[in-house]
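To close the chapter, one final illustration. This time we ask the reader to focus less on the individual chains and more on the assembly as a whole: which components sit near each other, and how the overall shape emerges from the parts.
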Amino acid sequence: MGISNIIFIVLFIGAFVLFGLRIKTIVRNIKLGRDQDRSDNFAERLKLMSLVAIGQSKMVVRPVAGIMHIFIYIGFVIMNIELLEIVIDGVAGTHRIFAFLGGFYNFVIGTFEFLGMGVLIACIVFLVRRNILKLKRFWSAEMTSWPRSDANLILTIEILLMTAFFTMNATDQVLQSRGVEHYIQAGSYPFSQYYAALFTGLSNETLIMLERAVWWFHICGILFFLNYVPYSKHFHILLAFPNVFYSNLNPKGKFSNMESVTNEVKLMFDPSATPPPADAAPVKFGAKDVTDLSWVQLMNAYSCTECGRCTSNCPANITGKKLSPRKIMMDTRDRLEEYGKNLDKNTPDTKSLLHDYITPEELWACTSCNACVEACPVNIDPLSIIVDLRRNLVMEESNAPAALAGMFTNVENNGAPWQFAQADRLNWANEA
Amino acid sequence: MEMKVPTMAECIANGEVPEILFWVGCAGSFDDRAKKITKAIVKILNKAEVKFAVLGTEESCTGDPAKRAGNEFLFQMQAFTNIQVLNGYEVKKIVTGCPHCFNTLKNEYPDLGGNYEVIHHTQLIQQLIDSGKLKVEGGTFKGKKITFHDPCYLGRANNEYEAPRSVIEKLDSELTEMKRSRANGLCCGAGGAQMFKEAEHGDKEVNVERAEEALALNPNVIATGCPFCMTMMTDGVKHFNKEAEVKVYDVAELIASAQDL
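The assembled structure is written out below.
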C-alpha cells in the first residue's frame, strides 16, 4: 500500500467522523423541541415521501426551476454510485476497478456524463437566475450576504466538481488511447471525448499528473462538500426525506389543539374536575423560544433550503409587509444553532426567538392563508410557528394589537367579533 | 317568496328532527352584505325543500378569529359552549355559510367532543343540484364572465376547489380563472383575524392586489364563497371604481338570483 492510499484512507475516515459529529449535534438540537407524535399512518407517510420528496412533485409547480432541480437531484443521486469505484480505487490503488464489466461499464460511465452535463447546465442556469436575472425571491430582505453567498458557493462547488469529473475522464481517455500502463481501455465518453482534444498535445507525465490532480480534487471536493452541507441551507438534501415523511397529514386548516388549555377550560366548565397537583410545573402557553416548539418544527428549520417559494406566495410579503415565512424558518434555525452553541459552551443565554429574532409586527401580518405551507416543496409549515408565537404574545404577554383585544372582548361578551347583542342574532330572518 | 327559517328550539318543540343545521355565522347574522348571502342560502334550502333549522340566538362565534389570533383560551371556551348546545340538540349534520366556521366546526371541534358531518354551502348546493332536488338554468348569468376567488379556508385549508366551480358552471356562464387560483390562490387579506384589525405597514392592501388580479380578466362577476372575502373583494373593486361594472356575489346568491328566488 502506497503513501497515497494511506492519505486517502485517513482523509476519507476523517471526513466521515467530522460529518457524524455534526449530525449528532443537529439531532441533539432537534430533540431540544417538544414531543409531537407523528408515528401514525406509516403507509400514507411513505407514499407522501415517495411523491413529494423522492418524486419532487411540488418542485415542478414552477417548471423551469423544477426541471433544472431534477437534473441536479438525479445527477447527484446516481453519480454518487461512481463514488464506490473512486473509494475502492483510492484504497486499493487500482484504476477503474469496475472496468471488467465491459459494455455495461461503458454504458454507466456514458450515462454519468449525460447526468453530469445536466448538473453543469442546471447549476449555471441557477447562478444566472440568482446573480444576473436577480429573481426577486433571491434578493428579499432576509437574503443578506451570507444566505446569498451560501447559495452561490454550493453552485460553484458543484460546477467545480463536474469540471473535475469531465477533466478526469478527458485526460484518462488520452492516456488510454496512448496505451499508457495502468490506464486500461474502458468507459464511453459522449461529452468528454470532445473536451479530450484539449489535452492531446501534453506529454504522458503531464497528463498523468493532471489526471491524478483532478481525481484528488474531485474526491477531496466531495469530502469537503459532505462537511459543508450540514452547516449550510443545503442540508435539505438529507432532511427533505424525513421532513416530508413526518409532515402534517391533517387538513391544513386544522390548527393544533392545545391540551394544556383544554385542561384549564374543562376546570372552568366542570368544578368537580380534578385540578392538577399544586406542585405541577407551571404551563407555558405558546412558544417564546425554540425549545417551546416541537421537534418537527425544529426539523423544518434545518430542512429549509431558503428557496423562498413560501415568501413569494405570501400575501403579506407580496404587499410589502415585513412578514416573510422564509425568514421565520431561517430565524428558527439560526436561533436553535445559537441556543445549541450556548448549551455546549455552558454560557448563559438571554435571548429568545420571539422579539430577538422575530418581531410581533411580522407575526401580526399573517393572514393564516396557508400559501407558504402549500408552496413549500418539502412540506415545511411556517404557519404553525407563527401561530405558536402569537399564542405566547396573547396568552403570556397579553400583547395583542388593541383592535384584536377588542375583538376578543366582543367574542367573550357577545358571542361575535363585533359589538352586536347575541339576542339580535336572528333579526336578519325578519328583515325583508 | 317568503323565507321559512325554523329554529332548532321550535323544531324540537314541534317534535321535528331537522336533517341539517344551518350554521349562519357571525358575519351572516350581523353584516349587512353577508345577511344577503344568508338569505340566499335559506331561499335555496326552502326551494329544495331541505328540512333545516338554525340555532338563532343560541348560536355563538365558533372561536375561529380568536384561535387564529393566538387566543386559544377564548377559542376553547367558545367551542365548549357551542358543543354543549349542538350536542344537546343531537346535531348530526351542519352546513355553514362561512368557510371559517366550516373549517373550525369540521376540523377543530372533534378533538373537543363535537363530532358532526360538516359541509360548506357550496358543497350542499352542488349536492342538491346533483341529486336533482335543485334545478338550475342559466337565467340572468347566462354567458356572463365569472371568475371565482378561492377562500383560503375552503380551498387550501380543506382542499375544496371544485364544488363552487361546478355550481357556477351550471349557470351556463363563462368561468374564467385568475392566474393565482385553486391551491395557488391569493388570500383576500381577511384571514387569521386580519378582518378585525388594520393591516400591518406595507405598500399595498392585500385585497387591492387581489381585486386588481380579478379585474384584469374583465369579468362581469367576481364570485366567492366567504363573507370576509366578500367584504375584501367588494372594497377592492371599489378601490378601482369598478363597482358599477363588476359585481361581487357569493355562489349562493348567483344560484338564488338565477332561479329568481
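Residues 3-31+62-236 of chain A form one domain. Chain A touches chain B through 69 residues (CB under 8 Å). With these observations in hand, you are ready for the problems at the end of the chapter.
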